[in-house]
Amino acid sequence: MTVIELKNNKFQKLYPINLGVNEIGHLTISGFDTAELVKKYGTPLYVIDEATFGYNADEYLNSLKKYYSNFLVLYAAKAFACKKIFRLANEIGLGLDVVSGGELYTAIKSDFNLKNIYFHGNNKSQEEIQLAVKNNVGRIVCDNFYELELLQKIAKNENKVLEILIRLTPGIECHTHEYIKTGHLDSKFGFDLEYLDEVLNLITKDSKNLLLKGFHSHIGSQIFEIEPFSDSVEILLDQFQYVKEKYKIELAELNIGGGIGISYTKEDDPIPIDEWAKVTTNTIKQKCKKLDLNLPKLICEPGRSLIAPSGITIYKVGSIKQVPNGRKFVSVDGGMADNPRPITYQAKYTAVVANKMNSKELENVTIAGRYCETGDILIKDIELPKIIHGDLITVFGTGAYNYSMSSNYNLVSRPACILVNNGKSEIIIERETYDDLILKQK
Ligand code: LLP
Fold first, then answer.
1. Residue 16: which residues within 8 A CB-CB, separation 6 or more?
2. pTM (predicted TM-score)
3. Among this protein's residues, is 372 annotated catalytic?
4. For a substitution probing ligand 1, which of 304, 310, 401, 405 has the most ligand atoms within 8 Å of its CB?
5. Alpha-carbon distance 37 to 420, whole Å?
6. pLDDT greater at residue 182 or residue 336
7. How confident is the model over 109-164, as pLDDT tens digits?
8. Which domains does the chain have, with CATH numbers?
9. CA 317 to ligand 1 center in whole angstroms
10. Is the CB of 301 under 6 A from ligand 1?
11. For residue 259, how far is its CA from the centre of ligand 1 (angstroms)?
């Protein structure tokens, strides 16, 4: 087996780490011929490479270990939430960021170490918070005044002391290639800094049941710059110092959210995790020294950068349409319902024809989905080998925000998801059947 130019650059994790091409020109992942996987499991097929997930997690753990002693890396469940991935994350020693009762319930059913669960969300319901409190999850990240009240009430009723973080909006707005600092962020998430006294008063004066452990902020997703992370750290630590001085509380936890970008195409240029870890922890150390603060426990919550490059989606080509003097549309058996990112965010992806990896004759095509929407286009204008009905198109970087954002639009069943590792393939999510589609219908 040769490793073709699908090899990742040093920092550009566009592909799973165990990708190759076999002697008959088929794409392989973790040693498996993708065409054989398709024969066994059908299409469309989500494939997650366990080794890549572990590799990405190690990058976070090892680089943070190099520069900082007290930290916890949480896997942001929203990127891909299912029992098996939660179990893997737990085994690796990651914590979990959950944002709903459903994600929390799945974590409980995966025997996740509940102490390492952080419960986020801007509109958690009373029932969801109760589920978290009853199960003694590690932290609840309080987002707003309504929730603060709810937490106090529930904690009192349950006669428990809840360890909470407060989510702040530090006024940093990130786009993929630029960021701005504003006084106020026009965001539905978190407390504006000017409400800090009100929050602290509520926590310190009115409740014996809430214990403030620290602050949280998440400045965005798919970020390619380090500065906004450092700026956010500095702003949060300024609040640490303010709270220390005014309220005599030394906060112990600094949660800086997730957001590190990945490569979806060769043009993308993400931050090396090691550099991010070095710069961010340096900023913390310097700032704490300057403000005379103890070094807090550092918490981060990557989702995409852990799981996206681990995942590929394999589709089968059906109809092919040549518009006279126009585009050639190659339709696959999936699309916007299994990967809503192109239609939602105009996200770009990279693909290959998995059964024609050595084919040299290329043509420009547009990969269309099967759903009844003109905008259901997975990749516009891509150079691929000449495609015929039955060919297998593989899209890379689909591990994050694909399955977790999938739908049953047009009442099409969700694909199966398999995990591959070391010569083993296993179904981690079954393909939905027609009966699954009508299960809840009366
Ligand atoms: N922590 C918090 C509080 C978040 O809101 C998020 C993502 C993360 C961590 C993880 O961020 P990541 O490392 O994955 O960038 N559906 C969109 C992404 C939405 C992200 C929402 N929050 C997409 O497909 O691009």
1. 29, 30, 49, 51, 52, 309, 310, 311, 312, 396
2. 0.97
3. yes
4. 304
5. 10
6. 336
7. 999 999 999 999 999 999 999 999 999 999 999 999 999 999 999 999 999 999 99
8. 19-49+309-437 (2.40.37.10), 120-302 (3.20.20.10)
9. 31
10. yes
11. 6
